[in-house]
């Protein structure tokens, strides 16, 4: 620890007041090994060595999202293989498990970082934004207007995560230091859409049998009405006034 001594006080009008010896102990800022490794110009595998255990778990969340995308694409190649679309939909809640687990590990080890926060947001975008949208495309929600609506959903998720990274420090905290609430619905709530699509697949309500069919069929405005669910969810994610208490 370093000691700093203040030997003179100054009055409010700028005149020197009587000498006062004040000895204060101040702690130096904790050494941030990750920041040092990331900012270093030398050293092999510095990025890998800089990652915390929680960061590696976050990577598993992103892996689930990527594998979900691949499974949806495999289903598009062979629509008769329902196992691929089931795998695509099942990998999304598995990603949520890792999303919860990385936060618990970070708090347990008392290690958090800006890199971890950015990794978490990017992994969430893949697993809970892009993956559900591609799964919806795979089961038949794929007219040009559907594309725009699904893109709107993904971009809302992207914007919501970016806003969270900017405002995380300004949101009121509870006794444990966690944010007291979410602004807008958190992006993992897209699991509700994931579960709905899994139910449709189990009932055979996919492709030409998607619930509520299509509107304006054969025109440039052809659209599946169910895609509105994705748009509503996107709007809820970006809401500023909707405060969802954190569990």
UniProtKB/TrEMBL annotation:
Membrane topology recorded in Swiss-Prot or TrEMBL: Multi-pass membrane protein
Gene3D superfamilies linked: 1.20.120.1760
Sequence intervals crossing the membrane: 83-101
Pathway: Phospholipid metabolism; phosphatidylethanolamine biosynthesis; phosphatidylethanolamine from CDP-diacylglycerol: step 1/2; Lipid metabolism
Catalytic activity: a CDP-1,2-diacyl-sn-glycerol + L-serine = a 1,2-diacyl-sn-glycero-3-phospho-L-serine + CMP + H(+)
A Gene Ontology term for the protein's cellular component: endoplasmic reticulum membrane
An individual GO BP term: phosphatidylethanolamine biosynthetic process
Alphabetical UniProt keywords: Endoplasmic reticulum, Lipid biosynthesis, Lipid metabolism, Membrane, Phospholipid biosynthesis, Phospholipid metabolism, Transferase, Transmembrane, Transmembrane helix
Keyword Zinc: no
UniProt GO MF annotations: CDP-diacylglycerol-serine O-phosphatidyltransferase activity
EC code: 2.7.8.8
Subcellular location, record wording: Endoplasmic reticulum membrane
One Pfam family linked to the record: CDP-OH_P_transf
Family in the record: Belongs to the CDP-alcohol phosphatidyltransferase class-I family.
Protein name according to UniProt: CDP-diacylglycerol--serine O-phosphatidyltransferase
Lineage start: Eukaryota, Fungi, Dikarya, Ascomycota, Pezizomycotina
């Amino acid at each position: 620890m370093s000691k700093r001594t203040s030997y003179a006080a100054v009055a409010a009008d700028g005149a020197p007041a009587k000498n006062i010896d004040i000895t204060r102990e101040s702690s130096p800022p904790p050494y941030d090994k990750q920041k040092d490794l990331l900012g270093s110009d030398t050293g092999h595998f510095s990025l890998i060595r800089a990652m915390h255990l929680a960061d590696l778990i976050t990577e598993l969340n992103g892996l689930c999202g990527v594998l979900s995308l691949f499974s949806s694409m495999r289903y598009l190649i062979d629509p008769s293989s329902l196992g691929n679309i089931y795998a695509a939909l099942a990998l999304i809640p598995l990603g949520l498990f890792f999303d919860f687990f990385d936060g618990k590990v970070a708090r347990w080890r008392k290690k958090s970082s800006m890199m971890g926060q950015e990794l978490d947001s990017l992994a969430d975008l893949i697993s809970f934004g892009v993956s559900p949208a591609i799964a919806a495309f795979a089961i038949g929600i794929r007219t040009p207007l559907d594309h725009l609506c699904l893109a709107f959903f993904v971009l809302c998720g992207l914007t919501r995560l970016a806003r969270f990274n900017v405002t995380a420090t300004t949101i009121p905290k509870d006794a444990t230091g966690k944010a007291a609430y979410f602004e807008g619905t958190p992006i993992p709530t897209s699991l509700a859409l994931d579960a709905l699509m899994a139910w449709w697949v189990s009932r055979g309500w996919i492709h030409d049998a998607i619930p509520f069919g299509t509107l304006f069929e054969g025109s440039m405005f052809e659209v599946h009405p169910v895609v509105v669910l994705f748009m509503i969810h996107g709007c809820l994610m970006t809401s500023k006034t909707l405060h969802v208490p954190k569990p």
